[in-house]
């Protein structure tokens, strides 16, 4: 199959590289000439484990290429994927679809055959209809079909998620288009037995939002249960295990923590609420989730202050982990931003360490001292706070930490460390949803 991928952002680049690794011939197109130039030099515009190697090997095999020339890129393509950004529109929370529509128009203007046009970007219900309208207006005789094919990739595990998905969702009622999509995903059905779920286009668009909203609800639910655990002397990790062993609930996404962040859950839950409001069908559970999560992030800063005795003035706090989760350099809506703001507002000085996120974090965090290692950050600090569970924080030398800190206090917002281990090292440990 010949595939064109419009947009070499996170989703486009990972999907393009993985499709080429399946054996398809893939051309990735982006307007940003600098990005394409860097990709030609095998320099990735994003941090994703394994991506540079995957890109390099498929470029070498001549199955993957990059261009700024959309017309050349889509020529003779069996499928043209739109994987451009859909940021939250400033002011109203709606997904900004201007990049999607601009791409659709440009594709329509340059279509040479009856390709299948696939939206991979996360787009509100009905966007496929609009893309189809643009197509009908600009290229009325093209015979091209518009399909929805949402992605379910987690940052940091995107290649694994792409190659070993729980399911692939394809939204179109057109049999010819389904055949093309079946052929594109055939390597997955053959090797992994991954089910391809065919639905209508609007249903497929909604599945994406419903999936992310449900996961956000699940995390927020366990976070509130964690608060209750602290109040009644129960252990949230055991509660998670105990409820998760029920297959109807499932054990994943039940890790209590400082609240969800990232580029997907916050944006997609808001966009779902906007769609719901437009159709006068309120989604109250999702509304509550968004609200609870927003307050939680700052509340985690107050939790640290409480652990330090209730006063942060003149104190120094060492923060480990700034990105919204490990294995990414993404700082969007990261809980660390709110935790640090709460600490600084209360008069604390913050020293921080992150393995990959510092460059992205610097412009977002003023007054923070960025350090080269967890131990440098902890030097003479009144508390050590783990905000993001990078692997390198799982094997800290806790004895050395206890000796480095001014006050041997560890606030572990990801529950990495068992209390006994911290105690042995001489640290006072405060976790999330743990009995005192
Ligand atoms: C999420 C979804 O998991 C993907 O399936 C989806 O494709 C993607 O959004 C998207 O829409 O593009 P991602 O945002 O990369 O992926 O990261 P997750 O691993 O889902 O984590 C999101 C946030 O939830 C992080 O801040 C993480 O720390 C938090 N989280 C996750 C918890 O606090 N507890 C958990 O048990 C799981």
Automatic annotation (TrEMBL):
<comment type="pathway">
    <text>Nucleotide-sugar biosynthesis; UDP-alpha-D-glucuronate biosynthesis; UDP-alpha-D-glucuronate from UDP-alpha-D-glucose: step 1/1.</text>
</comment>
<protein>
    <recommendedName>
        <fullName>UDP-glucose 6-dehydrogenase</fullName>
        <ecNumber>1.1.1.22</ecNumber>
    </recommendedName>
</protein>
<keyword id="KW-0520">NAD</keyword>
<dbReference type="InterPro" id="IPR036291">
    <property type="entry name" value="NAD(P)-bd_dom_sf"/>
</dbReference>
<feature type="binding site">
    <location>
        <begin position="253"/>
        <end position="257"/>
    </location>
    <ligand>
        <name>substrate</name>
    </ligand>
</feature>
<feature type="binding site">
    <location>
        <begin position="152"/>
        <end position="155"/>
    </location>
    <ligand>
        <name>substrate</name>
    </ligand>
</feature>
<dbReference type="GO" id="GO:0000271">
    <property type="term" value="P:polysaccharide biosynthetic process"/>
</dbReference>
<dbReference type="InterPro" id="IPR008927">
    <property type="entry name" value="6-PGluconate_DH-like_C_sf"/>
</dbReference>
<dbReference type="GO" id="GO:0006065">
    <property type="term" value="P:UDP-glucuronate biosynthetic process"/>
</dbReference>
<dbReference type="Pfam" id="PF03721">
    <property type="entry name" value="UDPG_MGDP_dh_N"/>
</dbReference>
<feature type="binding site">
    <location>
        <position position="267"/>
    </location>
    <ligand>
        <name>NAD(+)</name>
    </ligand>
</feature>
<feature type="binding site">
    <location>
        <position position="155"/>
    </location>
    <ligand>
        <name>NAD(+)</name>
    </ligand>
</feature>
<dbReference type="GO" id="GO:0003979">
    <property type="term" value="F:UDP-glucose 6-dehydrogenase activity"/>
</dbReference>
<feature type="binding site">
    <location>
        <position position="261"/>
    </location>
    <ligand>
        <name>substrate</name>
    </ligand>
</feature>
<feature type="domain" description="UDP-glucose/GDP-mannose dehydrogenase C-terminal">
    <location>
        <begin position="318"/>
        <end position="419"/>
    </location>
</feature>
<dbReference type="InterPro" id="IPR028357">
    <property type="entry name" value="UDPglc_DH_bac"/>
</dbReference>
<feature type="binding site">
    <location>
        <position position="86"/>
    </location>
    <ligand>
        <name>NAD(+)</name>
    </ligand>
</feature>
<feature type="binding site">
    <location>
        <position position="208"/>
    </location>
    <ligand>
        <name>substrate</name>
    </ligand>
</feature>
<dbReference type="InterPro" id="IPR001732">
    <property type="entry name" value="UDP-Glc/GDP-Man_DH_N"/>
</dbReference>
<feature type="binding site">
    <location>
        <position position="325"/>
    </location>
    <ligand>
        <name>substrate</name>
    </ligand>
</feature>
<feature type="binding site">
    <location>
        <position position="30"/>
    </location>
    <ligand>
        <name>NAD(+)</name>
    </ligand>
</feature>
<comment type="similarity">
    <text>Belongs to the UDP-glucose/GDP-mannose dehydrogenase family.</text>
</comment>
<dbReference type="InterPro" id="IPR014026">
    <property type="entry name" value="UDP-Glc/GDP-Man_DH_dimer"/>
</dbReference>
<dbReference type="InterPro" id="IPR017476">
    <property type="entry name" value="UDP-Glc/GDP-Man"/>
</dbReference>
<dbReference type="Pfam" id="PF00984">
    <property type="entry name" value="UDPG_MGDP_dh"/>
</dbReference>
<dbReference type="Pfam" id="PF03720">
    <property type="entry name" value="UDPG_MGDP_dh_C"/>
</dbReference>
<dbReference type="GO" id="GO:0051287">
    <property type="term" value="F:NAD binding"/>
</dbReference>
<keyword id="KW-0560">Oxidoreductase</keyword>
<feature type="binding site">
    <location>
        <position position="122"/>
    </location>
    <ligand>
        <name>NAD(+)</name>
    </ligand>
</feature>
<feature type="binding site">
    <location>
        <position position="332"/>
    </location>
    <ligand>
        <name>NAD(+)</name>
    </ligand>
</feature>
<feature type="active site" description="Nucleophile">
    <location>
        <position position="264"/>
    </location>
</feature>
<dbReference type="InterPro" id="IPR036220">
    <property type="entry name" value="UDP-Glc/GDP-Man_DH_C_sf"/>
</dbReference>
<dbReference type="InterPro" id="IPR014027">
    <property type="entry name" value="UDP-Glc/GDP-Man_DH_C"/>
</dbReference>
<feature type="binding site">
    <location>
        <position position="35"/>
    </location>
    <ligand>
        <name>NAD(+)</name>
    </ligand>
</feature>
């Amino acid at each position: 199959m010949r595939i064109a991928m419009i947009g070499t952002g996170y989703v486009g680049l990972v999907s393009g590289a993985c499709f080429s690794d399946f054996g398809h011939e893939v051309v990735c197109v982006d307007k940003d000439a600098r990005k394409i130039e860097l990709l030609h030099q095998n320099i990735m515009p994003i941090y994703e484990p394994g991506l540079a190697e995957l890109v390099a090997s498929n470029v070498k095999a001549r199955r993957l290429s990059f261009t700024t020339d959309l017309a050349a890129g889509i020529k003779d393509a069996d499928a043209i994927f739109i994987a451009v950004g859909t940021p939250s529109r400033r002011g109203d929370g709606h997904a900004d679809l201007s990049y999607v529509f601009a791409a659709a128009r440009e594709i329509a203007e340059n279509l040479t055959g009856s390709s299948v046009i696939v939206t991979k970007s996360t787009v509100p219900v009905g966007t496929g209809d609009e893309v189809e309208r643009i197509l009908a207006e600009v290229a009325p005789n093209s015979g091209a079909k518009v399909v929805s094919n949402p992605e379910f990739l987690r940052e940091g595990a995107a290649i694994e998620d792409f190659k070993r998905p729980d399911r692939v969702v394809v939204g179109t009622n057109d049999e010819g288009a389904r055949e093309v999509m079946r052929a594109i995903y055939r390597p997955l059905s053959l090797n992994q037995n991954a089910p391809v779920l065919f639905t209508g286009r609007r249903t497929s668009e909604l599945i994406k939002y419903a999936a992310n909203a449900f996961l956000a609800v699940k995390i927020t639910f366990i976070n509130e249960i964690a608060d209750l655990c602290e109040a009644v002397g129960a252990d949230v990790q055991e509660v998670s295990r105990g409820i998760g062993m029920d297959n109807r609930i499932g054990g994943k996404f039940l890790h209590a923590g400082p609240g969800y962040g990232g580029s997907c859950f916050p944006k997609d839950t808001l966009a779902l609420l906007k769609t719901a409001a437009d159709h006068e069908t309120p989604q109250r559970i999702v509304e509550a989730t968004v609200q609870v999560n927003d307050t939680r992030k700052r509340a985690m800063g107050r939790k640290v202050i409480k652990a330090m005795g209730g006063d942060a003035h003149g104190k120094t706090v060492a923060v480990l982990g700034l990105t919204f989760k490990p294995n990414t350099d993404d700082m969007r809506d990261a809980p660390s931003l709110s935790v640090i703001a709460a600490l600084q507002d209360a008069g604390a000085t913050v020293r921080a360490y992150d393995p990959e996120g510092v460059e992205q974090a610097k412009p977002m965090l003023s007054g923070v001292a960025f350090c080269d290692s967890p131990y440098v950050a902890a030097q003479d600090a009144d508390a050590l706070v783990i905000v993001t569970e990078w692997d390198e924080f799982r094997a800290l030398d806790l004895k050395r930490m206890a000796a480095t800190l001014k006050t041997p206090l560890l606030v572990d917002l990801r529950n990495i460390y068992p209390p006994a281990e911290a105690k042995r090292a001489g640290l006072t440990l405060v976790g999330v949803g743990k009995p005192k």
